[in-house]
Amino acid sequence: MFKQTTLGLVLLFALPPVATAQPAENPSPLVAVLIDPDIASEGNRDESELNLSLAIAVSNYCDYYFYRIGRPSEISLLSSGLSVQQRLAQMDLAHYASIVHLKPEGDFRTRTVTVRDERRVSHFVQVPGFADISLQYRLVTIDGGRIAGEKKGLVRADADRYWLKRSTAIGSRELDSLVAASPEPIEYVIQRCLEKVLRQVSEGPKPLETPGEPIPSLVYVDSSLIRENPGQWARSARELHELASRYFFHSFNHSFRACDVRPIDLPAEPGSSLRYTYGRFKGKVAAAGDTLIVGMCINTDPVDYFLHKGYDQVGVSDIGQRRVIISTLPRPTFSSGFWEPHFNGLTLLHEIGHSFGAIHASDMNSVMSHTTTWLASARFDPFNRRVIEAALSGELTFDEPEKYLSFVSETLTKINYGLVDYPSFFYHFLEHGENQTIRKNLLDAVPHRPHVFAARAYGLLMAGKHSAAARLFRQAIKTDSTQASLYYYLALATTGPESVAAMQKAADLGYFLALIRLKKM
What is the mean pLDDT of residues 455-479? Predict the structure, then answer.
């Protein structure tokens, strides 16, 4: 049983002016959302982790909501060292007319519910982790620098509904009464709570067709997904593709034009991974130059995914290659057309980022974070923006891996951004050489030696040689003291006070994985 939790977040948005016309230079007021993750480690550990997850979910839902209603927005999670007041002081609030203060509260307990079996006989079932979420909000209207009105309220969303089908398209797996009556996933509860508050924001103009320089793409939908969504699979695939295209355009002024949506059959062996399915996909669909090729399937068991019994990857792609595949998330029985593409669109955007050379960054505000789906952002971090911009302009190509490695290494030293997960990246890339000569050429292409030390250290860490790994990580830190990933892996390679101090340093630098891991140390 979780204790009651409180998470503070501040949401600012602009309402259309009442009596005067908007200035020509500001035709569409910006929506700004500031969210405090509330990651203090005091009290219940599960409560602290829950607050962080709620903050990320609220951030992403607000981002997606304002995108769908056509409002420009600025949404960010505050770092642990930055207060709401400090963040507000950095912003020009001259055009804002309203401030909304939200406090989500969650209560999670075991609850007895009544369910009916296939014979419609009622049973009492104990449901653990039943979610009851509420949002307190305070709306303040500003007019001429003065408070013109104020409104307070409370919205509540009980998880008192069935969210899984009794049989699924994946092997027609039968769900027992307990599973069928389990509480809906926390993301859906938060979604419905926020809708009740955000609806009070009037809509802006509907998004126009995505302009920019179109990149041709082909979309292939696996028979597994077609069975899951008969009659609507092509439309759903296009909508998902269009959402990722709009997100991409927002960052790079390039969009994707779906030339065609085609069915494909990618039968998977029982228990096979999405990486296996991706291999079959590449075997059936050849690369086509600059054309982006997207595969969509459903490879994730809904029971295992939503009940956290272990689940497969939800997206796979190869660095610099224009073929990606995603496994769309299982649908609850009450799926909303408004929110349907949200989780899958973020996954697709993440994999498209890899196809243009982006690598993982442990940043809550980046779509290239290790954790995608509903815990991802639709924005790219500064480092990966630079890499993708170079790929789009032709400055960076992937025909010669040595040049790509050199570009990544040089860019890491020039951009003041220390959340890139580069030890694992360089290790896996350098180890993929087909022979010793190729591996040596790749190694020689890395001009910044601390990147090589970090790669070797990561390999030693994976081999269980912690002392040797720690020595190399310390050596790399002497040169790259602002790179949070070095402290994170040093913490994994050491024990005791040094490990805790290194993990805390990574967390202080904003490394998302360290924020999570620190709660478990």
Answer: 94
